[in-house]
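Holo prediction. Input below; ligand is PMV.
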Amino acid sequence: MVTQKDALTNGIMSCWKSPSNIALVKYWGKKGNQIPANASLSITLSEAYTITRMKASKAEAGKGPGVIFRFEGELNEAFGARIESFLKSVIPQLTFLTDVNLEIESGNNFPHSAGIASSASAMSALALCLCSIENSFKEEAINQDAFLRKVSYISRIGSGSACRSVYGGISIWGKHPSVDGSNDEYAVPLPFELHPLFTEIHDTILIVDPGQKKVSSSVGHNLMKGHAYAEARFNQANTNLTAILVALKQGDWDNFSLITENEALSLHAMMMTSRPGYLLMHPNSLEIIDKVAGFRKQTGAAVCFTLDAGPNIHLLYPANEVEKVKPLIEELKQYCYNGAAIEDKMGSGPLKLNCK
Ligand code: PMV
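Structure of the complex:
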C-alpha cells in the first residue's frame, strides 16, 4: 500500500476544468455555515470556466496547509490568503490538508473583468482538485456519486452557488420536497430527463457593466436576515422551484420563462427593499429587459432573461430559436459595454485534465 507520506514525496498533481453556472431559481439568504434559506436551481454553463492545477507536497506534519497561489500566471497573495483561510475551514472534511503544502495555479477563460461571477467556477475547480488528491491516498476507489457529493459539499463552503457547478445540465441545491435526495449541504443533479426543448438552452451574456459590483453577495445574503419580505421570498422560491421542474419536464417554455423572469426580478427587488436598500441594475439593464419583452410580443420568440447579482443580462433561449433571436442580440449590443456579449450555453459539467 502506498502511504500518504510515500505518495507525497514526489508531489501529487491534480488538474480540473470547472464551469460557472447561472441560477434560474435564486439562492438569496443563508443561515449557519453556508446553509441556503431556500432551494435553488441552475444551469451549468460551458464557455465560462476556470482551469486549476494543484500540486500537493509534504509539509512538516501538522503545519499545513501552506499555499502558493498563482492567478493567470501571476503570484496573487490576496487570493492566496483567501484560499488559505478556506482550506483551514475544510480541514475537518479533508484531514490530509494539515500535512501538505499546496501550489495552485488557476485561470479563467473569460476576462477577469467581464462582470461574470467567477467564484462558482473557481471554487468548484479548487474542490475538485482537493478531493482528487484526497482520493489518491485512499486504498479503495470512492464511487463517482460519492466523490461528486463531497466535491459539491466542499465547493459550497467556498461559495454557495459553486456547489451547483459540479454537475452538467441542471443542478438543484437545498432540501426541497419535490426533489428526492435534495440536500442543504450539497447539490444534486436534476432527477429526471429534460424535455428535448431544454436540452440545449443557449445563454447570451450581455455585458452591461464589466466592473466590480458595489455590494458583494455576502453582504446581500446577510441583508436578508430580518428583511421585511424574507419569509415570503423563501416561500416564493420554493414554489417556483416546484413549478419550474414541471415546465422542464413538460417542455413548457412559457411557464419556464415566467418563472425565470419572476425569480430574477424578485432577487433584485430584495436588494432594493433591503435596509439599506441598493440597486445593482444599470439603466441599460432596464432598456434590455424592456426590449426583450417588446421583441417577444412582436415575434412570439421563445426568449427570456435572467440576472445574477449584478447589471448583466443573461438571455436564454432554446437551440431551435437561435436564428430568430439573432436580430434581438444585435440590437441589444448597443446597451453593452463596448458591445460585449458572451455566447454560452448549457454544458456537461467539470472535466478532469491531464496535468502537464
Ligand atoms: O454563491 P454566492 O454566495 O456568490 O451567491 C450567489 C447568489 C446569486 O448568484 C445571486 C444566486 C444564485 O443562486 O447563484
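The first helix runs from residue 4 to 9. That is the main takeaway for now.
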